[in-house]
Specification:
Elements lengths: L2 H44 L5 H6 L7 H23 L8 E2 L5 H11 L7 E5 L6 H8 L9 E7 L12 H18 L2 H5 L3 E7 L5 E6 L4 E5 L1 E2 L5 E2 L5 E4 L6 H17 L2 E2 L7
Parallel strand pairs: 2-3, 3-4
Antiparallel strand pairs: 1-9, 2-5, 4-10, 5-6, 6-9, 7-8
Helix pairs in contact: 1-3
Length: 275
């Protein structure tokens, strides 16, 4: 299997596992609520006097004093269980992704959660868009992505300029993905769904890259230098800064990301490769 196919296969597996975990947690929480609420309703019905007749016909008898006391304890226990479930805080958000492929299913969850039109913006500060563009291209088939604005950036320069730091294949991948974005943006599909795509290129050494949503969510990563003096395109991780994090460190990295993104979007990419 080719390296590109291996990465996409990993992405699919990661996304499937993430969805299974997410849906399992939701199903378990729903089941707990149903069981607790159902038990509460049954206990309450057994305690209502005017239901004696219908209950006897159905084969039930009114509980005695001891049973009523036990049922009262059950009612109280179920009440607090339902209340605990209702007030339970969601699990802490994952903030670190040591495997860069793990960020995609989480990013998609955050994309799908956005409903406000002004927040439907995805900025991709990329290096080659090696896995980013193929992944997002598949997402665009979803109706939830209608009305989105997406801006992509990737490195584009003569191979000799960065030959000592990046493999020539990386520059070819970047150009191929920029071309693919430009082709897709000029097709009929995006316009019919009110999707706006723009591709940009830059010719400086990459460092910071990641994803920013219009609501303030940010996933960012910084490349590592290898002992041989070249940038590692495999050994990096992602950090997540949620939209409600307004700490000084969070605001600082948002400003840094914004400065890099503004610099990377100076030149719009053209299909011919000539800017």
């Amino acid at each position: 299997m080719a390296p590109r196919e291996e990465e996409l296969a990993r992405l699919k597996r990661s996304g499937a596992l993430h969805r299974i975990r997410h849906e399992s947690e939701r199903a378990l929480s729903l089941l707990q609520v149903i069981v607790a609420a159902g038990g509460l309703i049954i206990v309450v019905l057994l305690s209502i006097p005017w239901l004696d007749g219908p209950l006897r016909k159905a084969g039930f008898t009114r509980p005695g004093p001891l049973s009523q006391a036990i049922l009262t304890l059950v009612v109280v226990s179920i009440f607090f269980e339902v209340r605990r479930l209702a007030e339970r805080k969601p699990a802490a958000q994952r903030r670190h992704f040591s495997d860069p492929m793990d960020v995609y299913p989480v990013l998609l969850d955050h994309v799908q959660a956005i409903g406000r039109k002004e927040e439907k913006v995805l900025d991709v500060l990329g290096l080659t868009l090696y896995t980013a563009w193929p992944s997002i291209r598949f997402w665009l088939n979803r109706p939830e992505l209608n009305g989105w604005t997406m801006r992509f950036t990737a490195i584009a320069a003569d191979s000799e300029k960065f030959s000592g730091h990046l493999p020539a294949s990386s520059l070819r991948d970047a150009q191929a993905n920029l071309d693919s974005i430009a082709d897709y943006a000029s097709s009929d599909g995006p316009g019919a769904r009110n999707v706006m795509l723009t591709a940009f290129c830059y010719d400086f050494m990459p460092s910071l890259h990641g994803y920013r949503l219009g609501n303030g969510d940010l996933f960012y990563s910084i490349l590592h230098w290898q002992p041989d003096g070249k940038l590692s395109l495999d050994d990096f991780s992602y950090e997540f800064v949620p939209r409600d994090d307004h700490s000084k460190s969070a605001e600082s990295i948002r400003e840094i990301f914004d400065s890099w993104f503004r610099r990377a979007t100076v030149t719009e990419w053209r299909r011919s490769g000539r800017q």
